[in-house]
Amino acid sequence: MTDSKRLSPRARERLARLIRDRAAAIGVAHSSPREIDATGIAAAGRLTMHRALGRLRLDPDHVIVDAFPLDAASRFADRQTAIIRADATCLAVAAASICAKVARDRLMRQLSRSFPDYAFDRNKGYGTARHRAALHALGPVALHRQSFAPVRQANATHTLALAV
């Protein structure tokens, strides 16, 4: 097993189809940039896991999560195991990681149509040099996380430019 980001997009798509065909249930969810900014990346990750679990068409007996355990108030609190780098050691988590990455890549390709200058279809939201250059040239848009350092820097640059 390996990190889903290390697989080629074609391999991820092929594996995601196999997983969807064979899995008892799949739940995929997202958190918005605004939610991530408001709660932090770890809390938003837990929220996303809860949403994904809520989208399953069955109630799992046990949940394995990658690194961050669900909070004590979770209905899964007493039936979870948090494993660091679970995507590299647990087949179910690796499969979930692949499905999540494929869904995220599809979302980023859709967003790229509305915001072509940011090349979301190529960088999938990661801070590549080209993406950072677009941030500094054009400023961030609503789907950027305001708490992300390059976005804060771009905001400061554009605020100064507007004030001059």
Averaging pLDDT over every residue, what do you get? Answer: 89
**Which structural class is indicated by helix and strand composition?**
mainly alpha
Strand neighbour order, sheet with most strands: 1-2
- Tell me what portion of residues adopts beta-strand conformation: under 5%
Tell me, briefly, the overall form. Answer: globular
- The radius of gyration over CA amounts to 18 Å
Number of helices: 8
- Note the gap between the termini: 53 Å
Biggest pleated sheet: 2 strands, parallel
The overall strand count is 2
Helix content estimate: 55-70%
**Element-level helix/strand string:** HHHEEHHHHH
| Poorly predicted sequence stretches spanning 5 or more consecutive residues | none
Any descriptors?
8 helices; mainly alpha; 164 residues; globular; two-stranded parallel sheet
What does this structure look like?
The protein is mostly helical. It is built from 8 helices and 2 strands. It has helices at 9-22, 33-39, 41-54, 86-89, 91-114, 120-123, 129-138, 149-163; strands at residues 63-66, 80-83. Helix 1 (9-22) packs across helix 5 and helix 2 (33-39) packs across helix 3 (41-54). The model has no long low-confidence stretch (mean pLDDT 89).
